[in-house]
């Protein structure tokens, strides 16, 4: 049997996702209409023999997470549990700490996935690849090709091109190493814990020499990338399965809109029922659009492409929405226009107002370009990016909000351009 682990991190993570991550843990932020990690779960439950999915992170369990877990359990009829780390133990420390839970029931292999990636999750292909490489029980990293410049933001993999063995692994190198990058999706056998255990023991020995206080905790912080993959490379145990199917990181809010676009187009194959269609008496739909069944939308509104409308959203006459995510409870009054933006929970946009951002999509002329999860400021100035309205923001009628980030609960009274409104 098989299991899967999703590394969901914790509240100190996801800083580039603010102010949206103030309201909901980033792994539950809706992408193409469903929580980010539901896409991982949907891919896992399609794998035959998948017995359990474990979310590992250091969030305090809260109502939102519990609600998600129980509704996912019911919907997918597989055990889905949250295991909370007592502190941030990093990508290898968390799975090591909970190794007994992962190994209970005797899985022959298990997937580990970063929560903040969007992917087609070619999990059956990874299982097949594992059988055909090494001794059939090797560890597999999903890789993809990036351009030279962007590869430096990821784990970089040098492979033996004949055998696909990982010969060399460098996490976020400062100079070019390889254009094959780590997608943050792995297939391990229980033997991985032997290798993590060796690092744990080494950390303990090092700490004894240093006579540090709180050593137990420090020894348990283990990074899969720097501590494990770097050492395993070249030992005939670690292989890379390179895919050219869609994949992207979800770090910034801008990348959530891009990820939504990728998943919405995948819905044609996986969930056609989630895509809105043009019907008489319904709004005009252009391209791929998700509309929650409880949203109330005037038939004269025009939506799409790449729009996701959340629960209980209300959209008035003549409204235009493109390349945006509208979160639950928001109200878009008549004739307002929302482009390249995320509109927060329960926010209101007044009549004839225009809320617009600048997309940060990957360069369409470069087949290997990834989205740049850029920092907020460059040369002391806010970089033009998508506009984000935090929750419960109110935008008056007839104003323009351009390339701005509005923190929650703000009541604006005029137009703003390229600003963070605190
Ligand atoms: N449980 C747990 N999860 C964690 C912790 N720290 C990070 N994570 C989770 O682990 C994943 C990786 O997060 P980061 O440590 O921020 O790494 P990164 O910059 O995203 O880079 C990683 O992913 C890239 C692909 O997206 C890889 O290219 C890179 O090599 C690396 O694995 C995220 O899903 C994050 O939530 C932790 O202490 N505990």
* Number of DSSP strand runs: 34
Q: Helix amount, in percent? A: 10-25%
Low-confidence stretches: none
CATH fourth-tier homologous superfamily of the largest domain: Spore Coat Polysaccharide Biosynthesis Protein SpsA, Chain A
What share of the residues does DSSP label as strand, in percent?
A: 25-35%
Annotation field: number of helices: 10
CATH secondary-structure class of the largest domain: Alpha Beta
Strand order of the largest sheet: 5-4-1-6-11-8-12
Oligomer: single chain
Can you tell me the overall shape? globular
Tell me what the structure shows:
- This protein folds into two domains: 2-249, Spore Coat Polysaccharide Biosynthesis Protein SpsA, Chain A; 277-421, Hexapeptide repeat proteins (UDP N-Acetylglucosamine Acyltransferase, domain 1, 3 Solenoid), CATH 2.160.10.10.
- Strand 2 (30-31) and strand 3 form a beta hairpin.
- The chain has 422 residues and is α/β, with parallel strands linked by helices.
- 24% of the residues lie in helices and 29% in strands.
- Strands 5-4-1-6-11-8-12 form a seven-stranded mixed sheet, sandwiched between helices.
- The structure holds guanosine-5'-diphosphate-alpha-D-mannose (GDD).
- Residues 7-9, 13, 56-58, 85, 88-91, 94, 114-117, 154-155, 171, 181-184, 225, 249 line the site of guanosine-5'-diphosphate-alpha-D-mannose (GDD).
- It comes from Erpetoichthys calabaricus (Rope fish).
- GO terms for molecular function: GTP binding; transferase activity.
- Pfam families: GMPPB_C (PF25087), NTP_transferase (PF00483).
- Residues 3-197 form the Nucleotidyl transferase domain.
């Amino acid at each position: 049997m098989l299991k899967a682990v999703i590394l969901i991190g914790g509240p100190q993570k996801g800083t580039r996702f603010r102010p949206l991550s103030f309201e909901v843990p980033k792994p539950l932020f809706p992408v193409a209409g469903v929580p980010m990690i539901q896409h991982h779960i949907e891919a896992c439950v399609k794998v035959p023999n998948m017995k359990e999915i474990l979310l590992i992170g250091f969030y305090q369990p809260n109502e939102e997470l519990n609600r998600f877990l129980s509704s996912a359990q019911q919907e997918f009829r597989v055990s889905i549990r949250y295991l909370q780390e007592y502190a941030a133990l990093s990508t290898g420390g968390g799975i090591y700490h909970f190794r007994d839970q992962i190994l209970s029931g005797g899985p022959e292999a298990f997937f580990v996935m970063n929560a903040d990636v969007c992917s087609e999750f070619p999990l059956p292909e990874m299982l097949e690849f594992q059988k055909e490489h090494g001794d059939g029980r090797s560890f597999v990293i999903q890789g993809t090709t990036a351009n030279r410049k962007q590869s430096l933001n990821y784990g970089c993999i040098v492979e033996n091109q004949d055998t696909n063995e990982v010969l060399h692994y460098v996490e976020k190198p400062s100079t070019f190493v390889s254009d094959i990058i780590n997608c943050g999706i792995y297939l391990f056998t229980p033997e991985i814990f032997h290798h993590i255990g060796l690092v744990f023991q080494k950390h303990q020995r090092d700490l004894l020499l240093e006579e540090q206080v709180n050593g137990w905790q420090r020894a348990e912080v283990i990074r899969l990338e720097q501590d494990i993959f770097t050492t395993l490379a070249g030992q005939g145990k670690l292989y890379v399965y390179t895919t050219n199917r869609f994949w992207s990181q979800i770090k910034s809010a801008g990348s959530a809109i891009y990820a939504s676009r990728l998943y919405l187009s995948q819905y044609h194959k996986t969930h056609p029922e989630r895509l809105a269609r043009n019907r008489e008496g319904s709004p005009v739909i252009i391209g791929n659009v998700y509309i929650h069944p409880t949203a109330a939308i005037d038939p004269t509104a025009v939506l799409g492409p790449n729009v996701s409308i959340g629960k209980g959203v209300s959209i008035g006459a003549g409204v235009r929405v493109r390349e945006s995510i509208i979160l639950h409870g928001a109200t878009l009054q008549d004739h307002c226009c929302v482009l390249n933006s995320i509109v927060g929970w329960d926010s209101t946009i007044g009549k004839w107002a225009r809320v617009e951002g600048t997309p940060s999509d990957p360069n369409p002329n470069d087949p290997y370009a990834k989205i740049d999860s850029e920092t907020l400021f460059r040369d002391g100035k806010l970089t033009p990016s998508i506009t984000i309205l935090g929750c419960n923001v109110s935008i008056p009628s007839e104003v323009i909000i351009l390339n701005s980030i509005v923190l929650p609960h703000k009541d604006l009274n005029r137009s703003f351009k390229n600003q963070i409104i605190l």
